[in-house]
Design goal:
By secondary structure, the chain is an alpha/beta fold. It has a single domain, classed as STAS domain (Transcription Regulator spoIIAA, 2-Layer Sandwich). The protein is built from four helices and five strands. It has a five-stranded mixed beta sheet with strand order 1-2-3-4-5, with helices on both faces. Helix 3 links the parallel strand 4 and strand 5. The longest helix has 18 residues. The protein starts with a strand and ends with a helix.
Length: about 120
Amino acid sequence: MNWEIDYLEEDNIVQVKTNGHLRWEDKKKLSQETLAAGREKNARAFLIDHKDATFALSVLEIDKLPDMFKALGFGPEDKMAILFSSDSAKNSLFKFFQNVFYLNSLQIRVFTDPNEATAWLKAK
């Protein structure tokens, strides 16, 4: 798994572009680095582009993600939009991913359109 982290100063959004095979260990390291970049810039909005990544997390691992995010400092004031390809074979897992975070009162949503994702992140 590879990723690039950028900061969109105009929108105060941390943007991440990933590619490769996303596993639990990768997700944890990626999340740590992403949140650290946000804290450094005083940003609370994150745009994660997983369109070029293969999502290899199990349902049980997805179920553990909210606890991992909370332990890393992701709180209710943070927002994360995750982009995935609309033709992904894992569409149902992305929806499950979103529901797990919703049930844990964390603002993480999945999108296929980058403009919709950015608009949601910028909305108060």
